[in-house]
Write a structure and sequence with these properties.
Elements: H1 2-16, H2 18-32, H3 35-84, H4 102-116, E1 122-129, E2 135-137, E3 141-143, H5 146-153, E4 162-166, E5 182-188, E6 197-203, H6 205-213, E7 222-226, E8 232-235, H7 244-255, E9 261-267, E10 270-281, E11 284-293, H8 294-315, H9 319-341, H10 355-393, H11 402-411, E12 419-429, H12 436-441, H13 443-461, E13 464-469, E14 474-482, H14 487-505, E15 509-514, H15 524-534, E16 545-548, H16 565-576, H17 580-594, H18 601-621, H19 626-630, H20 635-641, H21 645-686, H22 693-699, H23 704-715, H24 719-737, H25 742-748, H26 753-764, H27 768-781
Parallel strand pairs: 15-16
Antiparallel strand pairs: 1-2, 1-6, 2-3, 4-5, 5-6, 7-8, 7-11, 9-10, 10-11, 12-14, 12-15, 13-14
Helix pairs in contact: 2-9, 3-8, 9-10, 13-14, 16-17, 17-21, 18-21, 21-23, 22-23
């Protein structure tokens, strides 16, 4: 009885479905109406509307693809504008001698190569500098003249900072007019009304044509771009102006109405659906035109209609018998599908008209979500892997279990079965003097080059290797290697090879630290920490070094630090006195003392860091903010990059001490007179007290060294001489005009009695008592 009621309820729910009812009725109708007539009716009356829908869908796809092309051209314009405003491409380019200043020439070539590789549409990049002589980078350095100079000079006379153009002006009537590549130019400097040069970006003709061809999904037809002057820019059709494209352009001029639209074009017994629209470019407006054969657009409809006729004719014989069975079987999977998809119960509660509305809604959502996730996963997988590795080696994933970490790594594409892990740290060091300034300006380029070289070299030695750029002139490699193979020999070979490449390309010394081998993912952060600690045991000298922690059974014990405090005091005193040469000699002595017990980085860096901290303390004590001298640079990070003693001496002397002393002396020239006048007033008011150079410097908020130099320069005598002269003048006045005891006079002018007698005799020539006696004798004589 229960089964009977369940079946009755299912039948009732089935008849509530509009689709089931319509399907049941339709089969009954087909039973009594000849299937052939129904098929022909569907073919003749339905094809027009479906054809119209397909055409509209085709046009919508073209508009969406046109937006994608427009975005890529926007990206090229924005990217070129950003490069044009780079400090490297300032007005100073016109004054550079690119032959003698080869470092600047090499950096410009490197920048042009980076720009050239920044987008797949770019074929090559040129830099024209209207200097004397005129220079053209292609990207290599060339001197130009004559017609070639006149040609590139036209880019500066267009009065447009950024502009699209053809590389060569060719009459439109020629068949190969559309074969010339597009160029995007930007004058230099970026916002100058009087440009000194320009960057010329030439697009790849074939790739541009392929990009334009994506406007239509069919191999037949044509697609092209024209500018606001109706000149053909790019076409995917080789017939040029004389063939199909030429006829289409003539018809387009007649049919164009508004910024976008469509029309039907007849050519050689074929109908084409033509869609057009505009793209807003710099200082102009481009129009794209795409033509596709109507037969290709509507071919699925014709095929389906023919199949409907055949199936209708064949099904006519059995339709009546199978009406009920077919209805149930047709609806059964649909009912199951609706039950699965209707998670929000929209259809069961009557919010949707039929099941297909629900299926369509869910299918579109799932399709869009799937496409979005697939695109994001494809583009972001390298970033996701690097982000995961960064979190892993820095210990942020310690709470995950081993199985969970392995599962995540396998999802990212790593093969982990029977594999082990090794960390390799590559640290650039030993920067030469000639490269010192270049390293400051292009540290990111050095890091980029280091990462690229490491990636290319690792591909030749390891099947699974990921490189992380730590942005401190070092890179870390995670090598996932089969457990049974000889790994250490391969690691040594890789280290020597990449060391040789970096020596030749970057002309810098390299320290490579190789970790031990581990088989657990959770041990990877400890491997990273081991190599970071291990590379501190490198020798503090300018040479290539390989530190294999597997070979080093135990880390060498840390030697006690010998810190020469006395030499530090002498260095600080020499800095206060402005003695740069003496300071450099003392720093050499300091480095020799620090390295006396060993030349390991871990033994030397703490002492050097402490010396810099003491110098910075002296800078702050002088009332100068370190950023004023160092332009906001993190000097402690620069200390960490220095890898040999001579370089450390030059760095401390040239980058720290000399700028400080020059800044200090510059301030004395500006504030000198005001400070000295203020100090003179203090001396006049407090000469009878225990006054000193240090106390006066504190009163006027400066340091003794600055005050002493300022006093000598303004007054002509030093601080002590001025104070002594003032006190003795006051003492002579009291000796001559009062009957005070000499002890009392000494106290009134700020001296102890014994010292007063000595200082008075030294400067006046006689003791105070004899000076007063002379006054009395002269009075009696009168």
């Amino acid at each position: 009885m229960l089964n009977f009621f369940n079946k009755a309820q299912k039948k009732q729910e089935r008849f509530k479905s509009r689709y089931f009812r319509n399907n049941f009725i339709l089969i009954l109708v087909v039973t009594f109406i000849p299937g052939l007539i129904s098929g022909v009716g569907i073919y003749w009356f339905g094809v027009h509307e479906v054809e119209k829908s397909l055409v509209n869908l085709h046009e919508e796809q073209i508009y969406q693809r046109a937006e994608n092309i427009n975005d890529q051209l926007d990206y090229l314009e924005i990217s070129l504008s950003n490069w044009a405003f780079e400090p490297r491409f300032s007005a100073a380019l016109a004054d550079i001698d690119f032959v003698t200043e080869f470092q600047e020439t090499r950096d410009i070539i490197g920048s042009l190569l980076v720009l050239q590789g920044s987008h797949p549409l770019i074929d090559h990049v040129e830099l024209f500098v209207d200097s004397n002589p005129p220079v053209l980078f292609q990207p290599s350095y060339n001197v130009i003249a004559g017609e070639e100079y006149d040609f590139y000079r036209t880019f500066l006379s267009s009065h447009k900072n950024i502009d699209w153009n053809r590389l060569y002006e060719i009459p439109e009537e020629t068949d190969f007019a559309d074969s010339m590549p597009l160029v995007l130019t930007h004058t230099l400097p970026g916002n100058s009304s009087n440009p000194i040069g320009s960057i010329i970006v030439t697009l790849n003709r074939n790739k541009t044509a392929e990009l334009i061809k994506t406007l239509t999904p069919y191999n037949q037809g044509a697609t092209f771009l024209i500018n606001s002057e109706n000149r053909l820019l790019v076409s995917d059709n080789s017939t040029g102006e004389t063939g199909f494209v030429g006829h289409l352009r003539e018809r387009f001029q007649e049919e164009v109405n508004g910024s976008q639209g469509s029309f039907v074009f007849q050519h050689e017994d074929e109908s084409y659906s033509v869609s057009y629209g505009t793209m807003r470019r710099i200082n102009s407006e481009w129009t794209y035109v795409s033509a596709a054969p109507m037969s290709l657009i509507t071919s699925p409809l014709v095929l389906i209609s023919q199949i409907i006729i055949v199936i209708s004719s064949a099904g006519l014989l059995v339709a009546l018998i199978l009406t009920w069975v077919a209805s149930k079987r047709i609806y059964s999977p649909l009912a199951k599908l609706v039950k699965v998809l209707d998670t929000e119960r929209n259809w069961n509660e009557g919010k949707l008209e039929d099941e297909f509305t629900l299926i369509e809604k869910q299918f579109k959502e799932l399709s869009n979500e799937s496409l979005s996730l697939q695109n994001r996963l494809t583009t972001q997988l390298p970033q996701l892997k690097n982000s995961f590795l960064t979190q892993l080696i820095q210990g942020y994933l310690y709470h995950y279990k081993e199985e969970e970490l392995r599962e995540r790594m396998q999802q990212y594409g790593w093969e982990l079965k029977d594999h082990c892990f090794v960390i390799i740290d590559i640290q650039v060091s030993g920067v030469k003097d000639s490269e010192k300034e270049a390293l400051k300006q292009g540290e990111s380029l050095v890091a980029f080059a280091l990462t690229n070289i490491a990636e290319e070299a690792s591909e030749q030695h390891f099947k699974q290797c990921n490189v992380l750029n730590l942005y401190d002139l070092s890179a870390v490699l995670l090598v996932v290697h089969p457990r049974q193979e000889k790994l250490r020999d391969e690691l040594q070979l890789f280290s020597k090879e990449i060391m040789d490449v970096l020596n030749r390309v970057l002309e810098m010394q390299v320290t490579i630290t190789i970790s031990k081998t581990e088989e657990n993912v959770k041990r990877i952060p400890y491997l990273f920490e081991d190599v970071r600690k291990g590379k501190r045991y490198r020798n503090f000298e300018n040479q290539n070094q390989i530190i294999d922690l597997q070979i080093m059974e135990s880390i060498t014990e840390i030697s006690p630090i010998h810190y020469p405090f006395e030499i530090e005091k002498e260095i600080l005193q020499a800095i206060r006195m402005g003695q740069i040469n003496e300071t450099e000699k003392l720093i050499e002595m300091f480095i020799e003392e620090v390295t006396e017990l060993g030349v390991k980085d871990i033994n030397i860096k703490p002492g050097i860091t402490q010396l810099y901290s003491s110098i910075q303390h002296e800078i702050i004590h002088a009332g100068i903010h370190p950023d004023e001298i160092f332009d906001g640079k993190n000097m402690f990070e620069e200390v960490a990059l220095i890898g040999e003693p001579k370089q450390m001496i030059r760095w401390l002397t040239d980058e720290v001490i000399t700028p400080f002393i020059e800044t200090l002396e510059g301030r004395v020239n500006i504030e000198m007179k005001q400070i000295v006048v203020q100090v003179c007033s203090i001396i006049q008011a407090k000469y009878m007290e225990d006054i000193s150079l240090e106390s006066c410097a504190e009163d006027v908020h400066t340091n003794p060294y600055t005050l002493s130099k300022a006093f000598k320069k303004v007054i002509g005598v030093n601080f002590i001489e001025y104070l002594t002269t003032l006190r003795l003048d006051k003492a002579k006045e009291l000796l001559l005009n009062t009957d005070l005891k000499i002890n009392d006079i000494a106290e009134q002018v700020g001296y102890r009695h014994s010292y007063f007698n000595r200082i008075f005799k030294k400067h006046i020539g006689v003791p105070p008592s004899q000076f007063r006696k002379r006054r009395n004798d002269s009075t009696q004589v009168k």
